[in-house]
Amino acid sequence: MKLFRIILFPFSILYYIVTYTRNKLFDCGLYKSESFDLPIICVGNLRVGGTGKTPMVEYLANHFSDNYKVAILSRGYKRKTKGYILANETSDALTIGDEPFQYYNKFKNIIVAVSEKRVLGVEKLLSESVKPEIILLDDAYQHRYIKASTNILLTSYGDLYSDDYLIPVGNLRENRKGAERASYIIVTKCPTNLSEKESISIKNKLKPLANQSLYFTSILYDNIARNLNGSVNILELKKIVLITGIANPSPLLIYLESKNIEVKHYKYNDHHEFKSSDISNITNQNSSEAIILTTEKDYTKLKEFNIDRIYYISIKIDFLFGKTPDFLS
């Protein structure tokens, strides 16, 4: 592994030069960042892969939607369309992407839109008949053409950006110094029993600036798995078939195994586009009585195959140590 990193190191230097130059052009104003007259909250990370952006966006949507008209703007990763699209009853994972489609299905009182060009996306949202009062930018930390009023930077427990390296040696999209743009740094996927001592150790690794707030969250899984027709209590199951197409299914596996459930896992790449052959392979190898469990994001695509016995498990985040940020302060 060390030799492999040495071989790739020159490419990381080149990647550093490109990203450093780009950030400097934004910092000095040669590349323009647009500002808008409403709160825009950006959720993102420095690292490629899952850091818990989706549950954080959902937390924010829940947090603000009682008092504000909220819109979520995403690029719609791996969708089969282009341009600005406002989600509606004809939308699906192919037209707007799996995560935006999940948001649209889950929150009936918020606006969901996708656009590769986030500035255009915000302008289009503000021209709609129902205008948002807060916009949540999903996975847009490196998209600096918009000057967000609040930047939320996520980093996973056990995979801190402070311990990582730039692509292709490591998984960082930009240099660690990019963390300085964050208003809030949130360590996600922590153990629920994270100690104060370990949180201080993590803080010493991340070294947040004086004007940055550091928080810690854990994942809470719903014990009730659901589908369009009903629900099952996971705690009553002894054996399941698990299908995942997410970046890091390890926390879910750990949770299920902690409940003494025997898991047969079919793991696919993040944002996998499921095909009939995938489903046939899984159903042919498992009895018709076996419960199939998947993530909420994957269910947006898998439900199209009309498998009666497939259920999804929901997650939410929990802020540790009794500290919950305002995000608008």
Q: Could you please describe the fold and organization of this structure?
A:
- The structure is a single chain.
- By secondary structure, the chain is an alpha/beta fold.
- The protein folds into two domains: 31-220, Rossmann fold (3-Layer(aba) Sandwich), CATH 3.40.50; 223-313, 3-Layer(aba) Sandwich (Rossmann fold), CATH 3.40.50.
- It is 30% helix and 22% strand.
- The protein has nine helices and 15 strands.
- It has helices at residues 2-27, 53-65, 93-96, 98-106, 118-127, 196-206, 250-258, 276-285, 296-302, and strands spanning 40-45, 70-74, 85-86, 111-114, 134-138, 150-156, 184-188, 213-221, 224-226, 231-233, 239-244, 262-267, 292-295, 310-313, 315-319.
- It has a nine-stranded mixed beta sheet, with helices on both faces. It has a four-stranded parallel beta sheet with strand order 12-11-13-14.
- The mean pLDDT is 93.
